[in-house]
Amino acid sequence: MNALSDFPITQKWPAQHPDRIQLYSLPTPNGVKVSIMLEETGLPYEAHKVDFGSNDQLTPEFLSLSPNNKIPAILDPNGPDGRPLPLFESGAILVYLAAKSGQFMPQDVAARYETLQWVMFQMGGIGPMFGQLGFFHKFAGKDYEDKRPRDRYVAESKRLLGVLDKHLQGRDWIMGGEYTIADIATFPWIRNLIGFYGAGELVEFDRFANVRRVLDAFVARPAVERGLAIPG
Ligand SMILES: N[C@@H](CCC(=O)N[C@@H](CS)C(=O)NCC(=O)O)C(=O)O
């Protein structure tokens, strides 16, 4: 497929600017990773809201781009070899946008793998564990009588926060002096845990002073502030 109009998703969410990266998202902790990255890089893009209230994520048009029915997803009209590139999974999208923009990924080869290591730590650990904690603490799972599942995710979330806190000792960002996609992947989830999920006390967030310090620096970035509200 060589034109954006060949992609069924553009029938439900028409592109006003077909030369720009098309973002299909919502301001959730996974969604804002990509809107923050786009704001940080300055790459031109157009945001489309995928409304969970209307089950937009289950429509054939959305599934044609993101078969796992999850946001975020993108469609880049100018992908590799000048052809459109559809992509889902926030980690893969961050890696792609870092390569495309030449930003937020270290030049040094060893440091690149280290950055990817921390992106994977977020994708495989922090995201899924905090997400389950949210279910058992804030959503339907909070009414379950058996508190063992909740306690398991609380314990695992605390353990992960401890790993991150220890790593951040003496560092400005996850990769030291350099702000990278590892930070962009991780800190929306930390913010969500103590904000929207209201789980700060539950995980004893006060114990993790380094995580708190870097979270504060993250949310103070103007591009982060903008990205957190996209799509509006
Ligand atoms: N591993 C995926 C997870 C994405 C994900 O869980 N997205 C949620 C919102 S944060 C979603 O789209 N949920 C809709 C649904 O499950 O129907 C990623 O990082 O992109």
Task: Give the SSE layout.
Layout: H1 9-12, E1 21-25, H2 31-41, E2 45-49, H3 60-63, E3 73-76, E4 85-88, H4 90-101, H5 109-137, H6 148-168, H7 181-194, H8 209-219, H9 222-227
Parallel strand pairs: 1-2
Antiparallel strand pairs: 1-3, 3-4
Helix pairs in contact: 2-4, 2-7, 5-6, 5-7, 6-8, 7-8
Glutathione (GSH) binds next to helix 4.
Describe the structure.
By secondary structure, the chain is an alpha+beta fold. The chain folds into two domains: 8-103, 3-Layer(aba) Sandwich (Glutaredoxin); 109-221 and 224-228, Glutathione S-transferase Yfyf (Class Pi), Chain A, domain 2. Helices cover 48% and strands 8% of the residues. The chain has nine helices and four strands; from the N terminus they run H-E-H-E-H-E-E-H-H-H-H-H-H. It has helices at 9-12, 31-41, 60-63, 90-101, 109-137, 148-168, 181-194, 209-219, 222-227; strands at 21-25, 45-49, 73-76, 85-88. The protein has a four-stranded mixed β-sheet, covered by helices on one side. Helix 2 packs parallel to helix 4, helix 5 (109-137) packs antiparallel against helix 6 (148-168) and helix 5 packs parallel to helix 7 (181-194). The two termini are 30 Å apart. The model has no long low-confidence stretch (mean pLDDT 98). The structure holds glutathione (GSH).
